[in-house]
Amino acid sequence: MTSTRTLIRHALLVDGTGAPPRPADVLLDGATIAAVTAPGAVTTSIATEVDATGLVLTPGFIDVHSHADNAPFLADDDTSKVAQGVTTEVVGNCGFSLAPCLPAHAEDLASMSARVFPPIPWAWRTFADYLAATDAAGYVTNTAPLVGHNALRLAVLGFAGRPAAGAEVAAMGDLLDEALAAGAFGLSSGLAYPPGIFSGSDELAALARHLPVDRPYVSHVRSEGALLTDALDEALAVGRGSGRAVHVSHLKVAGRRQWGSMPRVLDLLDRARAEGLDVRQDVYPYTASSTMLTATLPPWMHEGGRDAALARLRDPAALERLRTDIANDDRSWENPVLGAGWEGVVIAAAPRLPEVEGCSLAAIAEARGLDPFAALVAVLREVELEASMVVHSMHEDDLDAVLRHPATMIGSDGLPPGGGGKPHPRMYGTFPRVLARYARDRRVLDLSAAVRRMTSLPAAAFGLHDRGVVAPGYAADLVALRLDDLADRATYDDPTRQPDGIAWVRVNGDLRVAEGRYLPGRSGRRLTPR
C-alpha cells in the first residue's frame, strides 16, 4: 500500500443507494474508493488514517440544479456549495448556459446574462471554447454542464419575439450538436424567460431529438402557477416527441390560489411514467423562489431585448398596458406579483442600487411615496434591468409532497456566485436543510432516502457513472456529517451563513472542508458524458 492511501475508520455509512446505515471502514486510493469493508477488516498499516467515530459518511452531494456556470472565473473560490457537502454541480440550467456566444448576437447574450450573472470574461464563441476556458480556470466542485436553449436561440434569433422558422431550428440544432460533442450532458430550457418564452413545442421537440438517447431534456417549464399542468403537458409532449428523458426543474406550485395542488401534479407525472416516459424532477427545500427581477414583466415587454424593454419602461402607453397586465389575472403568462403580492417580492441583488437589497417592492413603494407598480418600474429603470429577486409564493404542504416522491432529486437553484446582495439562502443551505429539517426533525423522508435523492439518483439520471455511491471503483467524493449538530444557518436576512455539522468534505479524495473551514484548492473536474 502506498502513501496515497487513506483509511476512514468507524464511520456510520449511508452509501447513497437507499440502503440502511451501517458501520463501515472506507479505503481510498488517491481519487478513488478502493474498498468498503466491515470495521476493522483492513489490518495492514495505512499511511493516513481518519477516525470517523460518531460521524455519518455519505457520498458527496450532487446539486442537479446549479447556476454556477461562472464560478471558475471568480478570483475567489466559490465555497457556497462545497461548504454544505456538494461535490458535483449540474450547471447550465433554465436555458441559461454561457455558450454558444456568436458575434451576431453576442450583446444579446451578454445583456441577458447580466440580469443575474456578475461580469463575465466573454472570450469564447463555441461551447467547446467556453469549456476550454473553464477547464483552464479550474473547478472547486466537479461540474456537469448543460447547454441552454435560451443561449442557442439568442445565438440564432436574438430576442426575436416569434417562433423559430425551420432553417433557424436547424441552425440551433447544429449549435446543439457542437455542444454535445464538446461535452454537454443535455439540453435545458427556461420557457418562462426570454427568448425561450417565444418558442413553440415543436421547436423544443426538434432540438431534443438531437440529444443522444441517454442525455435528458431539462426544463424550467412555461408556468409554475395557474398554468402549471399545461406547462407540464408541454414538457411531456417534448419527451414523447423526441423519445428522450424529461427532467422538470425545481418542481413547485407557485401562487396562493394554486396551493394544495401538488398531489395532482405528481399524479400527472406518475401517469406519464406509467405510460413509459422517463420523467424526473428536482426541488429545493424552501417556500420562496428566486430569479431575475425582469420576470415580473409579461412576454411583450421583452421583445427586442434590453434597450427595447427599457424604452417601454419609459413609454406612458406601454406602462399603462403593463400596469393592467400585472394587475389582471389573465393567466397568459407567469405573473409572480399576482402569486406573491407586492410584499412577497423582495429585491435580492441590485449592484447599481444596493440600498434596495433585502427590501420588498411594497416597502420600497412606501419609502419612496409611490404605489408598488411605480416602485417596480423605478427600480427596473435605475438598475437597467440588472437585478434579482426572491419571491415568497409557495406552501410547505406542497413542498413536503414533492420531497416525499421517490423520483425527486435535490437542487439548490442557487443564482450565480459573485453577485453580492442578499441571495436566496438556498445557495448556502439547501443540502443540510433537507437532511436536518426534513429528514431528521420532521421525518418527511428518512435519512437514507434523503441521501439517495442527492447522490445516486441524480448520478444515474445525468449519467455520472462513477459518482453518487460509496463503493469500490467510485470517485472519492465524500461528506462526513455530525448528524445531531447538522443545521442550515442561512436565512433570508443573513443568507450567506455556512451550515453547522459538516465535519469534512473530500473532492476527488482531496480534503477541501474541515470543521467548517475551507481548505483552498480547486480539486473538482469537469465531468464528461460517456
TrEMBL record:
InterPro entries: Amidohydro_3 (IPR013108), D-aminoacylase_insert_dom_sf (IPR023100), Metal-dep_hydrolase_composite (IPR011059), Metal_Hydrolase (IPR032466), Metallo-dep_Hydrolases_sf (IPR050378)
Amidohydrolase domain boundaries: 49-509
GO molecular function, one term: hydrolase activity, acting on carbon-nitrogen (but not peptide) bonds, in linear amides
Pfam family for this entry, one: Amidohydro_3
GO cellular component: cytosol
Protein name: D-aminoacylase
Organism whose genome encodes this protein: Nocardioides simplex (Arthrobacter simplex)
